[in-house]
Structures are given as structure tokens and as C-alpha cells.
Amino acid sequence: AQKITQTQPGMFVQEKEAVTLDCTYDTSDPSYGLFWYKQPSSGEMIFLIYQGSYDQQNATEGRYSLNFQKARKSANLVISASQLGDSAMYFCAMREGRAGGGNKLTFGTGTQLKVEL
Amino acid sequence: EPEVTQTPSHQVTQMGQEVILRCVPISNHLYFYWYRQILGQKVEFLVSFYNNEISEKSEIFDDQFSVERPDGSNFTLKIRSTKLEDSAMYFCASSAGRIEAFFGQGTRLTVV
């Protein structure tokens, strides 16, 4: 079974609108972390937001928020007020095990987001 | 802001040649990683390195691959005899072991 599933290969959103990028995960480890990275066409991987499995509140970072639904094992990224510069590939990733252990990240297949005027 | 630096940004090599990809992690970080991304595909874990030894490696990381921390700052990935299927973007990452790993800008390796 896939550990990280991103079911939307491509998404379009109009500038200034909000968009939700889906991510579901699968793990039996009670300690885990969920990450979102942005990869623009230039190729670098930019960290956006993190949610720990024991965090009570949904993570927020500026225009990014993570809709964490633990029982459903989903960790959707919400981008509010989309900008043209948000056009990029977005990857959801998971670290299994506690933070601080240096564990690897497992990535999903990504969602290509295109922001239109 | 400190960042992970990778060189070169793009490397073209002939099949069968050895390549060394270089990375300078963030200076106070303890954990180092290599990931690769074949064009249009997802990012895959290759190897993690801690305390001067490999802590975990994937099935991709076979005998053709090796990693080294030759001095206090550099972290290298060597591919001994490159194959066409090694063509990919290779990312180095480092972590202080807290939350996120910081990625470098990547080295695009093209094997011809």
C-alpha cells in the first residue's frame, strides 16, 4: 500500500481564490510527521508546513494551512488567496517515528497546481 | 538564512563513468540525506547518514552508490559506474533532528 497518496495530478485555481490539495497517508506508527513541500519549475524543494501527529491544532504558516484529520488519515494543504507564484508542483511527505530521530521522508506523487488570472 | 548547497547544479556524464555529487549541509545539522527524483516522478529516499555512518538506505542504494563525509562540511554521493536510468535530480538534505529537513537546490544528473 502507498504510504502517501495524492490523488490530484493537476489542479487549476483562479488568482485570489483558495485551493485545497489532498493528501492521505497510511502508517501504524503513532508518532509521525506530515510535511508539504513546493517544487517550482526551477526544481528546488521548498518546505512549506509541518504537522506532528500529536499536535492538537492544525498547522498554519501565512497563507498555508494544513487541514489535519487524524481519524481519516488526511493532511490536506489549503492555500488561501492564490497568487501566480503559487504555480508549482506540491508534494506531501511523511516521516514515521518521532521527531529528532533523523528518519527519512516518504513522498507522494505530487499535485501540479496552476494559478490562472 | 543558512541553506544546503549542492554542486554542480547540472552534470552530464557518459554511461559507465563515475560521478561525485557534492553537498554542503547546514553547519550545525546532524543528519544528512540523499534523495532522487526521476523526471516527472516522485522524490525517492536513497540514504541517510548520521554520526559518520549510514543509518538507513533504500533498495535503490546498491553497491554502485556510496556516501562520504570527507571533512567537517562536505557530504558526497558517488555513483561508481553510471547507467542511463541514474539520470535524475539528486537532492541533498540535512536536518538538526527536530522537524523538517532542509533540501538543497538539487543536482540534475544526465547520463548519456
Quick one: biggest sheet of chain A? 6 strands, mixed
Helix and strand run of chain B: EEEEEEEEEEE
Quaternary organization = heterodimer
Strand content of chain B: over 45%
Global mean pLDDT of chain A? 94
State which percent range the strand residues of chain A make up. Answer: over 45%
By DSSP, the count of extended strands of chain A is 12
Mean pLDDT score of chain B:
93
The first-to-last residue Cα distance of chain A is: 38 Å
Continuous helix count of chain B:
0
Number of beta strands of chain B: 11
General form of chain A = globular
Uncertain residue segments of chain B: none
Q: Roughly how much helix do the residues of chain B carry, as a percent range?
A: under 10%
The rounded Rg of chain B comes to 13 Å
Task: Explain what this protein looks like in three dimensions.
- The complex is a heterodimer of chains A (117) and B (112).
- Chain A is an all-beta fold.
- Helices cover 0% and strands 50% of the residues of chain A.
- In chain A, strand 10 and strand 11 form a beta hairpin.
- The termini of chain A are far apart.
- The model of chain A has no long low-confidence stretch (mean pLDDT 94).
- In chain B, strand 7 and strand 8 form a beta hairpin.
- The radius of gyration of chain B is 13 Å and the shape is globular.
- With 112 residues, chain B is mainly beta.
- The chains are: A mainly beta (117), B mainly beta (112).
- At the A-B interface, strand 5, strand 6 and strand 11 of A face strand 4, strand 5, strand 9 and strand 10 of B.
